[in-house]
Amino acid sequence: MSDLLQRLRDRGWRLTAQRRVVAEVLDGEHVHYTADEVHARAAEKLPEISRATVYNTLGELVSIGEVLEVSTDGRAKRYDPNAHHSHQHLVCSRCGVIRDVRPSGDPLALLPEGERYGFTLDEATVTYRGLCPSCASA
After folding, report:
1. Using CA atoms in the order 61, 67, 72, 76, what is the torsion angle rounded to 10 degrees?
2. Does the pTM of the predicted model rise above 0.90?
3. How far apart, in Å, are the Cα atoms of 36 and each of 33, 88, 98, 127, 131?
4. Which helix (H) or strand (E) holds 130?
């Protein structure tokens, strides 16, 4: 589960009403909203929040490393508050739903030495794709 609000408090980030509502929308497990989805949910709690404020806040959260920007297959960018919890993503190829997954084992170990081309590896990003239960049954 994301602990975004607490992390922001701990780092002394000024939590205005607008920033707080954006952080509240993003706080949780398996949260991968687009900026427009964040704005719509934030506006339910704080009707006067502007789209620009949401975009600026998301940009700040990404730049300080508290939120990850996730792009999949040319779809709209999504924002993931689980920036400090090691995980990969499972993406539905049809509807685009994203879930966090934590595979066992070291993904760096899966790349054979001959395929590293002299690179020193320090991280791997793996995206698993398939159909979610809703799309698979449709």
Report:
1. -40
2. no
3. 8, 23, 16, 23, 24
4. strand 127-130
How confident is the prediction along the chain (138 residues), in pLDDT tens digits per residue? 468 889 999 999 999 999 999 999 998 878 899 999 999 999 999 999 999 999 999 999 999 999 999 988 777 899 999 888 888 999 999 988 899 998 887 777 788 888 888 888 888 888 899 999 999 998
Residue 48 near residue 16 (C-beta atoms within 8 A): no
How far apart are the C-alpha atoms of 60 and 19, rounded to whole Å? Answer: 10
User: Do you know the residue count of the chain?
Assistant: 138
Q: What are the tokens at 122?
A: 């320090």
Q: Give the sign of the dihedral formed by CA 113, CA 115, CA 116, CA 118.
A: positive
Distance (Å) of CA 73 to CA 78, 90, 92, 123, 136: 12, 13, 11, 21, 19
